[in-house]
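Continuing from the previous page...

OK, I double-checked the sequence for UDP-glucuronosyl/UDP-glucosyltransferase against my notes and this is the correct one:
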Amino acid sequence: MAASGTDHSLAVAGRIGENDVKLHIAMFPWLAFGHIQPYLELAKLFAQKGHQISFISTPKNIHRLPKLPPNLSPLINLVKLPSLNLPNDAESTSDLPREKVPTLKKAHDGLRDSLSDFLRSSTPDWLLFDFAAYWVPDMARNIGIPNAYFSIFNAASLGFIGAEIPDYRTEPDDFVVPPKWVSFRSTVAFRKYEVSKNFDDLTGMDDDVSVCYRIAKALRGCHAVAVRSCWELEKEWLNLLRDLLGKPVLPIGQLPPAPPPNDNEEDGNDERWRSTKRWLDLQPKRSVVYVAFGSEAVPSQDELTEIALGLELSGFPFFWALRPRSDSVELPTGFEDRTRERGIVCPSWAPQLKILGHDSVGGFLTHSGWSSVVEALQFGVSLVLLAFTNDQGLNAKLLEDKMIGYSVSRDENDGSFTKESVAESLKLVVEKEEGKVYRDQAKEMSPVFGDRGV
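Thanks. Re-ran it with the corrected sequence; updated structure tokens here:
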């Protein structure tokens, strides 16, 4: 068994670069596919170097993973911890409404003993863990396994949350300005309406352990921090984290997903994509607005109405990947009939990566989830930002600071927006001269976000 302690962990880290040394790396992501997928991308990259991976989650999440490439599957062991025994077999955030996610966190904390049993029996050389498992560093040290917090949040979001325990921020107004430890100019902070939605989660009012505490404990307890980021995007935030923590902070790149197969390859018979591509091929270059808000952002009826009417008002052709809803929220009466000649509303799964990679797409109206941002910027697609929950507002502020994305104008107190603000934001970013800076910055970021070698 490996000896505990920082000296040993750094010695093992140094061995990773040695061609003749192969490691056993255990990975334990949070139970959300926006976290699981980047962890799996990193697992594949480790496996390509010949390292053995134990990829750990619950049975339903393991079952939902995409099929591994044949050359890598022998090196990636999919480890199933016990089911969570939640209603409706919920095992990820996509299985639950937002207000029920605290119950998922508590059930996730209940995996501690089974994870410990696996680690004791398999003795990996390293354990990479996610923010929710704030208890992992103490467990790993007791077993003698070096550990790293692999954050799918960017360095700006981590820097905003910080590593102060207890956190000095106890009131909503404390979260609408950058924290006291940020010494450079930045607007990265929550807006008032975002704090009102997230305050209980941030401070632990609806959970016995807050998000801020989980992240701060993970940052303080681990041997090293790996961040889904790069120096080219946020050097100042990475340096801040290193100085705050006094430990290695390693940007590992943006982990863009593998490019989709060519149209004449294995999925060329996918009629859904072929029909979508035929429609995209008919549109002028860089004219189409792609609209998607991920699996967790759920616009209200008023928000959905203004988005739809804003798309209509903009005059652009659009493709809207509109996730099916279990509630009674509906598109405005007559919207689909009025826009049928220039727009597509897709109520089921859409091939997002292929759509964003098509040269007719000129803008992406997005919730600012980081995986979607990465997918768009690897193709140089301009961003119109409409954040809804979790870290999305912090992502949007970082992108605004860097002039990479432009946020739809909203009321600071309640977050409401109008069809006019949606339409004007789209026009600015996609075609107006004053929005050229956003188009240029997206193109400049394309090689940074799309380089899998990073």
